[in-house]
Amino acid sequence: MAARVTTNQSSINDDSELTTNDPEHQTNVSSKKRLSSSSNMLATSSLISPTGLTSLISFIVLTCAYISGFMSRLFSVIRFESIIHEFDPWFNYRSTAYMTENGFYNFLNWFDELAWYPLGRIVGGTIYPGLMVTSGVIHWFLHMINIPIHIREICVFLAPFFSGLTALATYLFTKELWSRRAGLFAAAFIAIAPGYSSRSVAGSYDNEGIAIFALMFTYFLWIRSVKTGSVFWSSCTALSYFYMVSAWGGYVFIINLIPVHVFVLIVLRRYSLRLYVSYSIFYILGLILSMQIPFVGFQPVRTSEHMLAAGVFALLQAYAFIDYLYTKIPRAADIKQLFFGLIMIVGLIVFAAVVVLTYAGYIAPWSGRFYSLWDTNYAKIHIPIIASVSEHQPTTWTSFFFDLHLLICLFPVGAWFCIKELTDERVFIVLYAVFASYFAGVMIRLMLTLTPCVCVLAAIALSKTLDYYADTETSDMSTSPVVPTNDGDGEDTESDKNNRNLYDKAGKPKPIPGRRGTPGTNPEAEEDTSIVSSNIKTVVVICIAMMLMLFAVHCTWVTSNAYSSPSIVLASYNNDGSRYIIDDFREAYYWLRKNTPERARVMSWWDYGYQIAGMGNRTVLVDNNTWNNSHIALVGKAMSSNETEAYKIMTMLDVDYVLVIFGGMIGYSGDDINKFLWMVRIAEGEHPKDIREQDYFTENGEFRVDRTGSPILLNCLMYKLCYYRFGELQTDFRSPPGFDRTRHVEIGNKNFDLQHVEEAYTTEHWIVRIYKVKKLANRLQAKNALRQVQRRKSIYSTTKKVAGQARKQGVILNKPQIKKGTKVSKRKT
Amino acid sequence: MFLPKKFDILSEKIQQLTDWSLKKPIIRLNSERFKHYVKTAPRNYSMIVMLTAMSPQRQCSICKQAHDEFQIVAQSYRYSSAFTNKVFFGLVDFDDGSEVFQYLKLNSAPVFIHFPPRMKPKKSDYMDISRWGFSAEQIAKWIHDRADVQIHIFRPPNYSGFLLIILLVTMIGGLLYIKRNSLEFLYNQVVWGMFVVLAILICISGQIWNSIRGSPFLHRNPQTGQIGLFSGSSGYQFIAETYVVFLLYILFLNDHSFYFRSPFYPCVSIQNRCKASNKLIDLSIQCRLSSMFSIGNK
């Protein structure tokens, strides 16, 4: 017994050393190598003692989490190639490439001529540059040490690299909140959770990929600074917040959540000087730093989204002052209610000031995108272009489960544990859980911000459960909280066999006596141990291990099947299981790049703007940065009006080529005909006189492209461009010519000619079709020519006619001639 | 001789209609009036007519709602700056003018018809309620479409919700005041914890989706009468389904927090319940997983 006590003490010392050493190392260095060396040093120096073993195990688990987080995101690279995915990443990639070529300052002043013809786009002032700068720095560093890597490779692998770092940040965060074991769980969870990997697979080079790391790291530093109250940590928080601001528009979530945390702490009467120091420093530094980003500018002092932080800052100053008075004035306890009233009055004044300033116009009211989070019907009525995006739909419970699986079930449990043993920092995670789950429910896209929180809370729930169940021996000696057991070894071998060992290893109980749980839990545990026998415990542990394995399988399956398709290269599977790559998009964009004049202007729907500019290097009219609704509506109007009207718009906009996406040939459902109603709707919003949505429906209100479809639809430009000469094509022996495989109908309008445009290029599977807009002069000459030129076509047709007449008059040799007589029978009656 | 008379009739009709609609935005029409003002020839104004059956014995519940919405449209038009004598709003009740229904060959209510000037209504002049619904905004949009009059809907502010909130606040305040000596529960972590966990559960079991989309509670197969709790597609859900999920998540909560002596769990028969719930959880997860697979393979 005595020996155990001594080891406990020594391990307590070691552990405290560890906790002081670790974070410093990890904040200074975010790269993996330094971390590994430091932990290795710690591990080898005291390998024999249980603490050394603990840190070795946690190091191994973290490394495994990092590697598996990195690896599980590489499916798309292995299946296809190292390629940038989807739409927005193409713009990010293009601007990163521009930055590496021309330098940072040129990048900030970059005026992009390829976008939004004829307006152009000032790129430096309209983006969050954090992503480009990050990959630019990595590129510069690697070239400095003579590793000549192309910038594209860095862009492709940036998101998986940062998701590994997110796992480390989550570990640190959870360790501050609960215990190191929970931290290991959380790191393993976030590394493979589909809710996060959906946005960070290799090739999806988007802001979210690095922003979640910045988010978790800022939260960790904030918790740290609230706990210590040191200026150093809160300055670090502000710096990390600056990185987040430069990376993603979601920084608004941080700058609202932290003030809410401070406010709730004041309400809960948990105010302390630590809180005062950390928030004051964080707010002021963070405010100044965030205003350095050109895109953010003066927003932090001028918009309602940031006013909560300012208000809480003012309130905190007042509270601190009143609190100071309270300690200085003699017999202050007698007039306690006066102080209370004073604080309330200050709060009301701050609130009223913000309201008055908003009405006076000094502070911009909530922008539509944020307002639609509270009033869920707002966007549907007022901003159709926001409502049209599928990411902005509310979330069903199935997608919660699909993205988080087991974790979503453990999530409320973790929240409950945190509330039961409430401390300053656990208030934070509880608030985070409530707000994030509400936002994720409103908008499926914000599942991304919920995922880290769910991972943390599920890890807490699981680690607390396992703390209790995974030690079978505590029934004998209940004084020591956790003891290593045989059970853990069994799990270890089992998991080694399965090669997906992170969770089980993390679940392995490790002797960390310096845990932060309140001492009040121990007697309870003692009572329970007398009830539950060790057999039951083993069964429960095996059940949990099974569930974790299912979780790992599910995560891998989801990441591989649902989230790893690059969407510019499509794959289909033949009957024998062999894979067939459909590469039409790149084929078309490459054609554009090589065969069109350099200044050619391409009109397409806005979805493909970034890709045309990025891969085809040609000027586009509208792109995915949908800031100018009227411009988009003009393109929509051109697409949805008939050819003559569209030609007027196209000449007005100087269009040289028109590009449409057509999936009817191979059954690709994301094509322009399926998006067509949105074009009509957006065009109708700006030009209600010319375009009416109702005209594009049949009498029964259906959207059909077959014979029953509305004639306006069957003659509009989009229809004609998609189905030009499609009626001559028989895709299958069983179906008639002109059979659309996406909509499973035979098209209604088959044999038409194009008057003002001509086909320039159609890809192998007809997915991308490019048309050249004819020049105006040709058309006028042909129609108004004084001298009638006999055209070849007419010659053919007349000869045909003559031939036909000749045949009509032909006679069969020796055929008896029948003279037509009148009917006899009729006369009789 | 003929021409001035026609003009006389027309101006007299317009005068009469304007007077009526100034008094009340919706003009009630019976058979004779309908014949005179809507059906017969000299007419250079549009009529938006709602045909309905308002009397209680007809048992038309949506007629009342439709009438309210129509009333809002007419009110907004009457008091807007766009008010002219080009468009009038009329209403025909079945009990006043059943001949009108016969004349138009209608056997259902409510129906909105636009009578364009100098013409008979075409097919598109009948508003398709089954597709558009009959909310005031949709009616205004339809009128804008047919008669080219822009009406900005102004709904009278709804005071009932405001009153309800005031009532609730006063009730809670009163309760607190009455029980002001035992406000302990306000400081009770368990109560607040339950609130927080409830909020989280509501969010993650998809209740927000229900309130935005408004799906049916259950699905009943019309042929077999079979009741479907779960919807087959991954992009849709029924309300009942979300309650089931809600309860399942609570089961988890029970299972893991029992050794806290939580308020959920006053009496202990831990061993049995532990086994049972674990089995259930495993089962449910596997069910769900298999369904996921099937969805994915689709």
Mean pLDDT across all amino acids of chain A: 79
Query: Between the first and last Cα atoms of chain B, what is the distance in angstroms?
Result: 77 Å
Describe the biggest sheet of chain A?
5 strands, mixed
How many discrete structural domains of chain B? 2
CATH topology type of the domain at 584-781 in chain A: Rossmann fold
Structure annotation, total helices of chain A: 38
Binned, the helix content of chain A reads: 55-70%
The percent of residues in helical segments of chain B reads 40-55%
Number of strands of chain A: 11
CATH architecture of the largest domain in chain B: 3-Layer(aba) Sandwich
Instruction: Could you tell me the CATH topology label of the largest domain in chain B.
Output: Glutaredoxin
Strand content of chain B: 5-15%
Radius of gyration of chain A: 34 Å
Transmembrane segments (chain A): 42-68, 122-142, 154-172, 178-197, 209-225, 245-268, 275-295, 307-326, 338-364, 397-417, 429-462
Biased composition (Polar residues) (chain A): 1-29
Keywords (chain A): Endoplasmic reticulum, Glycoprotein, Glycosyltransferase, Magnesium, Manganese, Membrane, Metal-binding, Transferase, Transmembrane, Transmembrane helix
Domain STT3/PglB/AglB core (chain A): 602-658
Characterization of this structure:
- The complex is a heterodimer of chains A (829) and B (298).
- By secondary structure, chain A is mainly alpha-helical.
- Among the domains of chain A are: 75-145, no CATH class; 210-366, no CATH class; 584-781, Rossmann fold.
- Helix content of chain A is 62%, strand content 5%.
- Chain A contains 38 helices and eleven strands.
- In chain A, the strands form four sheets. Chain A has a five-stranded mixed sheet with strand order 6-5-7-11-10, with helices on both faces.
- The radius of gyration of chain A is 34 Å and the shape is globular.
- The termini of chain A are far apart.
- Chain B is of the alpha/beta class and 298 residues long.
- Helix content of chain B is 54%, strand content 9%.
- A four-stranded mixed sheet of chain B has the order 1-3-2-4, sandwiched between helices. Chain B has a two-stranded antiparallel sheet with strand order 5-6.
- In chain B, β2 (46-52), α3 (61-78) and β3 (87-93) form a beta-alpha-beta unit.
- Chain B is elongated, with a radius of gyration of 30 Å.
- The N and C termini of chain B lie far apart (77 Å).
- The chains are: A mainly alpha (829), B alpha/beta (298).
- Chains A and B meet through α21, α22, α23, α24 and α27 of A and α8, α9, α10 and α11 of B.
